[in-house]
Amino acid sequence: MRIVLPLAASAVGGIAATSVWAALTVGTKATQASSSGIQSFGAPAKGSKAASNPFAGLPKLTSGRPAPAFSIPGLAGGRVSLASFRGKPTVLNFFASWCPNCRAELGAFSTISKKYGSKVNFVGIDTNDSASKVKGLLASEKITYPIGLDPSATIASKYQVIGLPTTVFVSPTGTILGETFGAQTTTTLKSWMARIGAG
Hints:
By secondary structure, the chain is an alpha/beta fold. Helix content is about 25%, strand content about 20%. The strands form 3 sheets. It has a 5-stranded mixed beta sheet with strand order 7-6-5-8-9. Strands 1-2 form a two-stranded antiparallel sheet. The protein has a two-stranded antiparallel sheet with strand order 3-4. The chain starts with 16 loop residues before the first helix and ends with a helix.
């Protein structure tokens, strides 16, 4: 289940997706957990108008479509780009240090990435966050795969990420294989490894 959040009245009609995130997150990093474990962001100002889908004008993120390209600063320096991971399936995990369910799933990602890292690329996209806050968290969870920094949620918006954590699976040729929402476990990630041909 994907959470669709209210969109501020001033934002309805042709607004850039990044502004949707800004409207929802300015002034607060408070989160609420839905029954599915997806984190929703702070509600917009009182009196705002709701929209059924703030990303209605964007191409649908469905299996078989090309994954949106990106090249963003890496936590360890350099750039993290989708194009550099061609040739093997790629797991894109959108997360943030302030998101409880994101923190909860990092142990599973650490375990699975070490087991399947020779067959699958794992990439974290630190979303609407700061590098200084996420470094300690990743070190404590022994995350060693590349982390890209998306402080303004620009890449998250391209992937129509409306809640964290969200994980997107990309084929070796750069097309979407699937996506899943909420905190993952070693069991769910193993299932996905089989689905994308790495099991």
